[in-house]
């Protein structure tokens, strides 16, 4: 493979955003920021063996997810994704065709959101593929859906359903057998092709105030991040946590809490807002068929995350979930 030929093949056929001044092909990209908007930027990396296994995912699925997890961070800021850059470290056992397919996985999502690939970097590496995606988005200058914005008595809400991705990973790792074929495919798909909740983030951005976080490391961990940043507490009900039909089915013979509390990679949004704003949010989401569920409330109990179990026992949850240095 030739580095320069490969980069030539990444040149987009079309540019969606009129504000791109210089895209792929020079020393750096140039774009014009929109007036009255703040620029929002995030970067997340995926490493072969840590975030995906080459034999368990197609290159297209890996590319899709590498972009999706970053769009999810943009959604958690109430922002709209506009541009992305891709840095890729390539070992010799990845063929050019695999890499072009990986980019196709990204194009699928980028087309949906009319995002432009405006640059990146290509290097070789000894062993595992590493793909790092940077996304730039824009948000109305007054919108700040920060982890620190929770207030006492707020409603705690979550989009979609929780725990599917982690159960899907357990299937891929042969730690879980699911007989129902449709359920098995659903769970694996939720792991490989998470849906970033940009539309929900947009609605939340219209509220007077909201705290917001996306669920990458697990619900318990993300709730801890909100209570730490807001110096408050959260209490939530196990019975109210939205669980898919596929995961509910597994409840009969598995302890599913490890998936929905600590598993991670749900890429749903979790946040808090006033009771009044919650009513507006719920109504707006219902109108657009966006699933959003109230799971608890914000308390004055500093930095504690309390779960009311289905049997009404109350337990304090530790900040455990996915942690790169704890496994
Ligand atoms: N190596 C680093 N250097 C500088 N800032 C970092 C570094 N790693 C993380 N950060 C910053 O720390 C904050 C939290 O990052 P983190 O990656 O935990 O958030 P996240 O992307 O929402 O979570 P996840 O990576 O699990 O998806 C962000 O502001 C991020 O930019
Ligand atoms: C092969 C394999 N083993 C384990 C996992 C689970 N996993 C990896 S990183 C992560 C948290 C989010 O990542 P980050 O914090 O880097 O954004 C999780 C839950 C996986 N996806 N693939
Ligand atoms: Mg990150
Ligand atoms: Mg995040
Ligand atoms: Mg992230």
UniProtKB/TrEMBL annotation:
Positions that bind Mg(2+) 3: 27, 73, 214
EC number, as in UniProt: 2.7.4.16
Residues where Mg(2+) 5 binds: 217
Ranges where the PurM-like C-terminal domain occurs: 151-304
Enzyme class: transferase
Role played: Catalyzes the ATP-dependent phosphorylation of thiamine-monophosphate (TMP) to form thiamine-pyrophosphate (TPP), the active form of vitamin B1.
Descriptive protein name: Thiamine-monophosphate kinase
Organism, as annotated: Metabacillus rhizolycopersici
Lineage: Bacteria, Bacillati, Bacillota, Bacilli, Bacillales
Gene name, Swiss-Prot/TrEMBL: thiL
